[in-house]
Amino acid sequence: MSNASPLGFALITGASSGIGATYAKRLAARGYDLILVARDKARMDTLASSLTQQHGVQVKILTADLTLSEDLARVEHELTTHSHISLLLNNAGMSVDGEFINADIERIDTMLTLNIVALTRLAHAAAQSFKARGNGTIINIASVLSLVHENFNGAYNASKSYVLTLTRAMQHELAESGVQVQAVLPGATRTEIFDRSGKSISEIPAEMLMDVDEMVDAALAGLDSGEAVTIPALEELALWHEYDRARGAMLPFLSRDQSASRYRQR
Predict the structure, then answer these.
(1) CATH number for the domain harbouring residue 86
(2) Residues with active-site annotation
(3) Which residues, listed in sequence order, are joined to residue 60 by a DSSP beta bridge?
(4) What is the domain count for the chain?
């Protein structure tokens, strides 16, 4: 593509609103061409027109439901064959209201397909393509609930814990490849995800709810500074480092040839 941006194309899932649409605006302002992926073509058309006029970037639209295997395969194909894609934002996701046991298991199944299966396949496709070229950026949107075991919907929390774990593993595997991988852990963010889950955003205390512009700006600042894990709301970064060090300190002792002494002194 002779007129492609020198920064390449950013492929953004869940791009029609909320976090995805805001990333599209910010990345277009930085000079990225865009590939927008979502189900709502009308919204993406409006966004694409606005970004093209404001920033002069190319915007391609892929209408896709990433819970459908054939749609997911089309987006994977784009990542593996479009050599100008330099950034993947794995943002598409959904939540389910209520606690795990009482929630609709069919909605949970759909959520896991989107939050885990689709994200994994796209991350895998992008990682292989970017590693082969020796450059690229992958941003996986997780959640602070990836660190919460006890509250809210356990299946949603677990899906975001998966995203965090996968991202850390990818960072290790791609450490010498020239590919940057970031996990973003937003707290409650003012988007439509609440309405779609059946939970009203008005139920969230105002002091816990971040505007989407502020969240995305913080996440991009974290990306620019090379953070592996960005938690936009966390003021004391030392708390995250302490948590991660404690996890690392346990690793040598988690698999041994004998059980812990507390289990053998009975």
Answers:
(1) 3.40.50.720
(2) 156
(3) 35
(4) 1
